[in-house]
Specification:
CATH class: Mainly Alpha
Radius of gyration: 40 Å
Structural class: alpha+beta
Number of helices: 11
Number of strands: 4
CATH superfamily: Outer membrane efflux proteins (OEP)
Oligomer: single chain
Strand order of the largest sheet: 1-2-3-4
Largest sheet: 4 strands, antiparallel
CATH topology: Outer membrane efflux proteins (OEP)
């Protein structure tokens, strides 16, 4: 584990709550979108369902290790056939050996009678070699893994909503720039047409300018289509139909004039070792490893003898009125010891299987950690580069705007042609479009860094949620 990130900026204190990192963009529309997505997204609901499944499985596993007690009650009616019973039994005590009726017999053949029974039976397998304890550990670890996976889904969702939203806002800003550029191009076309009418330029210049205008309109339409696609994506992330934002009022907010470019967000990267605690996917992978390790103990315990206790207490009587008398009590108890002798090596093969699965889980954990480190390093590198690019374009934009204003002054004094004025304005608009893209890229890099650092969840709240499953 490295001691620091190669591209990290110096850590600075921040007042932002890491559980709601998207609020660092100071955009209430984004805050509303994330809140709605957390409540309605279908992937989040699936993750919550998997947590419920894991909890139910843990409860079932723990219950299997304790004593089981069952209650029973039974009432029956029986009529014994005279013809089906041996004649000697039917006439026992009469002195006859035939089928005659020389005496009353013992009163069985042909008699009708009822039976009543009620009672309890219990069984308990003693956990002498820790198999049940290991099973409980595995089930508990899988609950924790499901909880961390749910939190990881929330981190991914928040970052995807924020990323899609920032892309949409960048497209809207670029559309506004494109509209200005098209208007400037049309002004230039009008100027060219006037000069063409006076014979100062050929009609070829006007046709070229018309081509340029149509090309810009096509690019503007493509930007508008991309913006609409991003609106559809936001609707789906919120658990709605692609066009489902309209009834919520969010569509109108998104169609309004786009917000100002997001201010650069300070993201303290911390130390690489912090990822082991901050990344939900790492925590989930570690709990999966713990569960796989506990499974080895379960399989190993199956190699040793099992000892169980059973017992029953019942009341039985042919008369309901005598059922609760002490003479109706029947009781039994037993201890049972079983030892696996011959099974074709299945138990030992199961142990080897669990060991191999645990090794796979260990490798998966190590891979997750390495991937997390790379995610942070990549995000830091891209964020630094895009911030430098945006800063350079801001300087370039200011220079282009100054040049455009200078051209307008020179034009008013008759020192330059109007085409020079329009060209300077087009250049400034082109730089402004590039700046909008660079600012959006920097915002997306900050989102990616928050995601890579495991932002979007609260350490204390998540640990409390895991511990709650032990109650």
């Amino acid at each position: 584990m490295p001691t620091a990130y190669s591209s990290a900026e110096p850590a600075t204190p921040t007042a932002d709550d890491p559980a709601v990192w998207w609020q660092a963009f100071r955009d209430p529309v984004l805050d509303d979108l994330v809140a709605r997505a957390m409540a309605g997204n279908l992937d989040i609901q699936q993750a919550a369902s998997r947590v419920k499944q894991a909890r139910a499985q843990e409860q079932a596993t723990r219950a299997a290790g304790g004593p089981s007690v069952n209650a029973s009650a039974q009432a029956g009616y029986t009529r014994l056939s005279s013809n089906a019973l041996p004649s000697a039994l039917a006439n026992f005590g009469t002195g006859n050996t035939g089928s005659g009726s020389g005496g009353p017999g013992i009163g069985l053949a042909g008699e009708d009678f009822a039976t009543f029974q009620t009672g309890f039976d219990a069984a308990w397998e003693l956990d002498l070699f820790g198999g049940q304890r290991r099973a409980n550990e595995a089930a508990g670890a899988r609950v924790a893994a499901a909880v961390w996976s749910q939190r990881d889904a929330q981190v991914l969702l928040a970052s995807e909503v924020a990323n899609t939203y920032q892309q949409l806002r960048a497209l809207q800003r670029r559309i506004a720039v494109a509209d200005e550029s098209i208007a400037a191009a049309r002004d230039l076309l009008g100027f060219i047409e006037v000069r063409s009418a006076k014979g100062l330029v050929t009609t070829l210049d006007a046709r070229r300018q018309q081509q340029d205008i149509q090309s810009q309109i096509a690019q503007r339409d493509d930007l508008a289509a991309q913006a609409e696609v991003h609106v559809h994506a936001l609707g789906t992330l919120l658990g709605l139909a692609p066009t489902g934002l309209a009834p919520t009022g969010l569509a109108a907010q998104l169609a309004a004039a786009p917000a100002a470019p997001p201010d650069p967000v300070a993201v303290p990267a911390g130390l690489p070792s912090d990822l082991l605690q901050r990344r939900p996917d790492i925590r989930a992978s570690e709990r999966q490893l713990a569960a796989a390790t506990a499974d080895i103990g379960v399989a190993t315990a199956d190699l040793y003898p099992k000892f169980s206790l059973t017992g029953a207490l019942q009341l039985a009587s042919r008369s309901l009125t005598h059922l609760l008398e002490t003479d109706s009590i029947t009781a039994n108890g037993a201890g049972r010891l079983s030892l696996p002798l011959i099974g074709g090596g299945a138990s030992r093969a199961t142990v080897r299987l669990r060991e191999a699965q645990a090794n796979e889980a260990l490798l998966a954990y190590q891979s997750t950690v390495l991937g997390a480190l790379r995610d942070v390093e990549d995000a830091l590198t891209r964020l630094a580069a895009d911030r430098r690019r945006a800063e350079s374009l801001r300087t370039s934009l200011q220079a282009a705007r100054d040049a455009s204003e200078t051209m307008q002054v020179r034009y008013r004094h008759g020192l330059v042609a109007y085409t020079d004025v329009l060209t300077a304005r087009q250049t400034a608009l082109s730089v402004q479009d590039g700046l909008a893209q660079a600012e959006a890229a920097a915002a997306q890099d900050a989102i990616a860094l928050y995601k890579a650092l495991g932002g979007g969840w609260d350490e204390r709240r998540e640990q409390q949620e895991v511990e709650r499953t032990r109650g």
